[in-house]
Write a structure and sequence with these properties.
The protein has 242 residues and is mainly alpha-helical. Helix content is 83%, strand content 0%.
């Protein structure tokens, strides 16, 4: 890989990640949480298709079925809390586009780590830097207000530890995500995050006595079972290759 190709891939991935973060924050701020969660259900299937297109993997029908179960469970759990008037076309387009960007970023990250032999340290010292610069410029362009700037700066000055902790936690999340993508792949990493959410909901219901809508709980239970099925088929495939 030439130096020009190196910078092109790093800058492209950084811009993609920055756009993803900006879109996620905008969606959470502008649209109701239910529509965001409903459309997130599509991300595993988009990832599955992109990975097959990029020829990273050739999953079995059982793997496809498992991913479909996870997506269906996510859709069901979010639909249990949604209302008809929340399903706005503008919101669907915005959040749906952002889910496609997330899938693109995960697959591109896997490509950079696997195909281009980037180390995790090399990835973490280049891509997030570009992403941060891009995100800062995008935020200034879309949210800059001469009257509001002093108040925003005041919030940061008065709460330095909150901003510092948030930044450190975000760094930890990025490190864990990239490490997971490098070792188990983009699709498994995404499904693992979904399974974490589903298992937390079930733990709160069974162990903490928390009350959740029946459809919401059912959807999370289905997603978790789909994740277990996916990993079972994945491990069988790895054993058969050996």
């Amino acid at each position: 890989m030439t130096m020009s190709e190196y910078f092109q891939k790093v800058v492209l991935l950084g811009v993609l990640h920055g756009t993803l973060l900006f879109g996620s924050l905008t969606a959470q701020k502008v649209f109701n949480g239910s529509i965001v969660e409903i459309l997130k259900a599509a991300t595993p299937m988009i990832l599955f298709i992109l990975l097959r297109y990029k020829e990273f993997s050739n999953p079995s029908k059982s793997g496809l079925m498992s991913v479909g179960i996870v997506s269906f469970g996510m859709l069901l759990s979010a639909t249990g809390e949604a209302h008809e008037n929340e399903m706005m076309i503008r919101g669907a387009l915005c959040v749906g586009g952002n889910q496609f960007l997330e899938a693109m970023w995960l697959v591109s990250s896997q490509s950079l780590l696997k195909n281009d032999n980037f180390s995790i340290i090399e990835f973490l010292t280049t891509v997030p830097l570009v992403s941060g610069i891009y995100l800062f410029i995008a935020a200034r362009l879309f949210e800059y207000s001469l009257e509001a700037e002093p108040e925003r700066a005041k919030i940061a000055v008065e709460n330095p530890y909150t901003f510092l902790i948030a930044g450190l936690l975000n760094s930890v999340v990025i490190v864990l995500n990239i490490t997971a993508i490098n070792h188990v792949g983009a699709l498994t990493t995404k499904l693992l995050s979904i399974a974490g959410t589903s298992s937390l909901v079930m733990f709160n219901v069974f162990c903490m006595g928390e009350l959740v809508p029946a459809m919401n709980f059912t959807g999370h239970a289905i997603s978790f079972l789909g994740f277990l099925a996916y990993n079972t088929f994945r491990l069988r495939g790895l054993k058969n290759k050996k």
